Amino acid sequence: MGMYIWEESFVNRFMQGVVLVFILLSHSVYKTQVINCSIHDDPLPIPHNFYQPGDLLIGEIASQVFFFSNNLSFMEQPAHILIDEPISVPKYYQHILALALAVKEINEAPNIFSNISLGFHILNSYFTARMTYKATLSLLSAQHRFVPNFKCCHRSNLIALIGGHISEISANVAIISAIHKAPQMVPNEAKQHLGVVRLLQHFGWIWVGLGAVDDDKGDQFLQTVVPMLSQNGICYAFIVRIPKQSYVDELIGLLIEQWKNYDIFMETKVKIFFVYGEPPSFQVVRLMLFLADFLKIPPLCKVWIITSHWDFESLSIQKNWDIQAFNGSISFTVHSNQPLGFQKFTQVIRPSWAKRDGFIQDFWEQAFSCSLKMSQGRDEENEKKICTGEEKLENIPGILFEMSMTGHSYNVYNAVYAVAHALHSMYKSWSKHRRMVDGKGTAIQNVQPWQVHQFLKSTLFNNSAGDTVHFDDIGELVVGFDVTNWLMFNNGSVVRVKVGRLEPQAPPGKELIIHDEQIIWHQNFNQALPVSVCNDNCYPGYSRKKKEGEKFCCYDCAPCPEGMISHRKDADACVSCPENHYPNNDKSQCIPKVQSYLSYKEDLGIILATVAISFSFITTLVLGIFVKHKDTPIVKASNWTLAYILLISLLFCFPCALLFIGQPGKVICLLRQTAFGIIFSVALSSVLAKTITVVLAFMATKPGSGMRKWIRKGLANSIVLFCSFIQAGICTVWLSKSPPFPDVDMHSLKGEIILECNEGSSIMFYCVLGYMGFLAIVSFTVAFLARKLPDSFNEAKFITFSMLVFCSVWLTFIPTYLSTNGKYMVAVEIFCILCSSAGLLGCIFSPKCYIIVLRPELNSRKQLMWKTK
After folding, report:
1. Which run of H or E residues covers position 42?
2. What are phi and psi of 674, to 5 degrees?
3. Where do the H-state alpha helices sit in 232-359?
4. Which of 199, 585, 658, 660 stands the most exposed, by the fewest C-beta atoms within 10 Å?
5. Sorting pLDDT into bands at 50, 70 and 90, what band is 77?
6. pTM here?
7. DSSP H or E segment with residue 651
8. 594-596 and 752-758 as β-strands: parallel, antiparallel, unpaired?
9. pLDDT for 536-570, tens place per residue?
10. Which tens digits make up the pLDDT trace of 476-494?
11. How many contiguous H segments (helices) and E segments (strands) does the chain have?
12. Is the distance from CB of 577 to CB of 565 less than 8 angstroms?
């Protein structure tokens, strides 16, 4: 059952990297026949192969050599090979060396096999489907016989098969191996797509170009990636389809067709080009860039983002082509490391290092641009130098061959070890259950591939590079991806720099780890982070506004409304600040509001408090003068009882202002307006009583007047008590129904939280002020009418001035009070209290104090009576 599940895992994925196939040649499933092998020799063997004998063999379908050929048609019989000279891709020779190294190390390791040798057989696919099928069938057949699925006299002891590094080659191998129910174990391709999305988000690239190979895999890639990009806030500006391969007779037309895409590549806003393709597609792009360079067209300035399918390899004839366009590219490569013996192993590679290596000659000649053939015509000898055979691989440009093990080679290396460890586990299991044929372990040589399968699923080991190799429940290789920064140099050197890691098993959002400071961008970016957006970012303080008819990545920027902010780039909408915060001038962040109230620590509070205390001191001084000179005529004429009441009330009026300074509290708020209203009402009542007394006194002096009975001390006191009682009643109702309380005002002033006393009932507050205004107006009216009475010291005119000051101050108070906020509103009320109180004190008592202190000669009954007469 597990076998079919694993097969389904492959059917759903055509994968980059290594495809590890275990051939199940079960006697119970397939018919076994014994035939005469000699009559089934392959009439056209594959020339490029590498064979090393062993008790058990591992096969590999390599893709290193190809021939130029025309497209197949049914008009004529196709030729086997169009051009005799093969073309080698030198970089892919490393895959062959990785397998050879792994087999060598396993055979030399005493703890894996004993009395059993491991061999390999590598055949070339020539990058074509028909040759891939032929190579696969050849490996499944008897040794050197093209008889698949038959047991011959020279039977094949193939135990496992490693597919090509190109997904199409692996898919073609799978078509053959699927007949044998062969499972496939590969990493999941979709994990790379997620890694690219995370990379684009990390750098803020939301306007990208897409390139995909023009086949079914490219269609599947676009169907997967386009919605994924959109869901993560990324748009594509264009999609370019890249041909997957070209034949000689189609090459010119292909270049003309692709040349139409060059203008699209030149899109200036798009700095990022995400490409899905494989080496044949890469060669098409290289041809296009080579043509652009030949025609002196400005080079592309892009950051190429590629998946692990794409490798920057070069043919020998291309090694002098400029590859600077790909400098700074970023790729997701299958994780690789450096086995301990790889560097030493490559140092011994020579043309004669292995007698049966059918790849080494083409690799050597094309990598070093020389010839291993000793007999040449004169013309050919002039074109190519003779190889010494002692050339060193480290001298080959990196575009042709890399000395560090690449991701695919690393997977080949691990795949061979995985098979060996599975065989070792099977050997131990059989030994434990005493199912060995003899004590020398010869039964392991007769193992069938399908028997290894169950042991492979549970394989777990540490390789010589220190990495752990194992598979998950569905047969996928548990492996991460390296984020690689590609550096291209003019001399053909290629350097891979690992700048990050993609861990698909990590929690969501933490899959990608990248080190920005290690990345070297294309030289045209001057080492600044490339910016790839449809339009400039909306900076904090602005929000995005969609452009009609365009993709969501293209937008306008609208400033945030008043009271709202956006604190990041490209905000979808502005947000309001909390109540205790306010936006800064740029509307990019919320700033905590400061508490605001009239404090004793600030200049305004200090000045007002000083003035209030000073006037209190002056009032005390005046009261002292009047007490000291209470028996003088001018004090007696002023009705000293009312004068004392007025001075004492003024003495309390000035300190009332201090209740308005400082942080408002519950008691303070209750006392502020009520104490001020009652005390001022007492003062105004005494002024009113004094004015009425003056008027009645003059009216009583007339002969036959009946006003004498009203002139007595009780009348004045009654007026003061009655008028004060009414204000006290208003305040009592106010405190009982809706008393003032401490409150905060978050909205009146920007950046401030106003600590204030809420009046509770505005109606009652204005009733208190209105009643005081009524008393002032009545006093002013009576005093104004009595201002010309014939008296040596007519107090009515001074009361008139005092009431004029009082009314003027409080009439200007109301509009000013309503138009201000916070501590300045409180300061306005304090100012009015001090001014009105000072007006009463100054207008009424300063003339008397002047006479008492400075002109005592005028303070006599004679002077008062003379003036009256």
Report:
1. none
2. -70, -45
3. 251-259, 262-265, 279-294, 342-347
4. 585
5. low
6. 0.65
7. helix 640-656
8. parallel
9. 888 899 998 888 888 888 888 999 998 899 988 88
10. 777 788 999 999 887 778 8
11. 24, 29
12. yes
